[in-house]
Design goal:
By secondary structure, the protein is an alpha/beta fold. It is 36% helix and 20% strand. The longest helix is centred in the last third of the chain and has 17 residues, at 227-243.
C-alpha cells in the first residue's frame, strides 16, 4: 500500500501487522490499541531550508544576500520544531549532512541560536527593515512549513507556502524556480557525507549555491581515500556552507511505526526495515 492513511487503517483494523510513516498525530491512537505497539525511530534524514543563493529564480531575490539568509537562521526555533512537531528523538541539525556520517563534524559548523531580534537587525542591515515577500516551496506535511511561515512572519518576512507533491517540487528545483525550499534528504541510507553534500553543492540542477570554492572542497573530499584529508576538506566545506548560510539544516526526521505485539521489530536510523532480523513471538 502506498497510502499511509489506508495502511494505518488496515493496521488498526487488525488486517496488517506492520506499517510506518503514518502521521505523528496518530501515534497515541496506535499506542492505545491492546494488540499494537507504537514506535518512534530517529532517522538520519535531514530536513532543511534551501535558499536560492545564486539567483536562479530571479536576480532581485533577497535570499541572494548573506545577511538575509543568516537572519532566517536566527528567526526560526528549530529545536522547538524538532521536539514539538517531529517529536521523538528529533533534534536541531547544524550541519548540511547527518552527524553520524563520516566527514560530517558538527564542530566544523557555524551555529545559529534562536534570536528574533538579531534576525530583525540583520534584515535591516541587508536593506529590508520592513521585511519582504517570498515563496516557500515544500512537499512536507503542512504543520512544518506553517511553523516556518509563522517564525518568518514574526520578523517581517511574508513567505507564501506552495505545498506540492514530491515530483512537482523536484521539477521546480531542476528548473531553478524555487526562491526558498523546505525539503529533506536521506542520503540513500549511506553513512558518509559524500552521500549528502555533493548532491546539493557540486553544480547540478539541485545546486542553488553555485559556489566554486564549496564545489572544489566537496570534490576534494570525494576524490581522496586518506581519511584525514577527506575530513579536512569536508570540514572546510561545512564551515563555509554554514557561515554563509547557504542552506539551513533544520532537524532530523523521526519515523513512526505501528507494529503488532506479536512481532519483534527494531527500527534503524537508515530507514531500512530489516525484516530478516524480525521474528514472531
Amino acid at each position: 500500500m502506498t497510502d499511509s492513511s489506508t495502511a494505518l487503517a488496515e493496521l488498526l483494523g487488525g488486517r496488517a501487522d506492520w506499517t510506518w510513516n503514518f502521521n505523528a498525530d496518530n501515534f497515541d491512537n496506535v499506542a492505545k490499541m491492546p494488540n499494537l505497539t507504537a514506535v518512534r525511530g530517529a532517522a538520519m534524514r535531514v530536513n532543511f531550508l534551501q535558499f536560492d543563493v545564486a539567483g536562479r529564480s530571479g536576480k532581485d531575490n533577497p535570499l541572494t544576500k548573506e545577511k538575509v539568509r543568516q537572519a532566517i537562521a536566527y528567526a526560526i526555533n528549530r529545536q522547538e520544531m524538532a521536539s514539538k512537531l517531529m517529536q521523538g528523538d528529533s533534534r536541531q541539525m547544524n550541519t548540511p549532512c547527518f552527524p553520524t556520517q563520516f566527514g560530517c563534524d558538527e564542530d566544523a559548523a557555524v551555529k545559529y541560536e534562536f534570536n528574533p531580534e538579531k534576525a530583525k537587525q540583520l534584515l535591516a542591515e541587508a536593506g529590508y527593515p520592513n521585511g519582504f515577500d517570498t515563496e516557500l516551496v515544500t512537499f512536507l506535511p503542512q504543520q512544518y512549513p506553517a511553523s516556518v511561515q509563522a517564525y518568518l512572519r514574526a520578523v517581517g518576512i511574508n513567505a507564501k507556502v506552495s505545498a506540492l507533491q514530491v515530483q512537482a517540487v523536484i521539477q521546480r528545483a531542476m528548473d531553478g524556480s524555487i526562491p526558498m525550499g523546505f525539503t529533506n534528504w536521506g542520503s540513500y541510507s549511506i553513512n558518509d557525507a559524500s552521500a549528502f553534500m555533493p548532491f546539493f553543492f557540486t553544480g547540478s540542477n539541485q545546486d542553488y549555491t553555485r559556489d566554486p570554492e564549496v564545489q572544489k572542497l566537496i570534490q576534494q573530499g570525494g576524490s581522496v581515500t586518506d581519511p584525514a584529508e577527506r575530513r579536512k576538506a569536508y570540514d572546510a566545506a561545512i564551515k563555509l556552507i554554514t557561515e554563509k548560510a547557504y542552506i539551513l539544516p533544520m532537524f532530523n526526521s523521526v519515523v513512526t511505526y505501528g507494529v503488532s505485539k506479536q512481532l519483534n521489530f527494531k527500527p534503524w536510523p537508515d530507514e531500512l526495515p530489516r525484516f530478516y532480523l524480525s521474528s514472531w513471538k
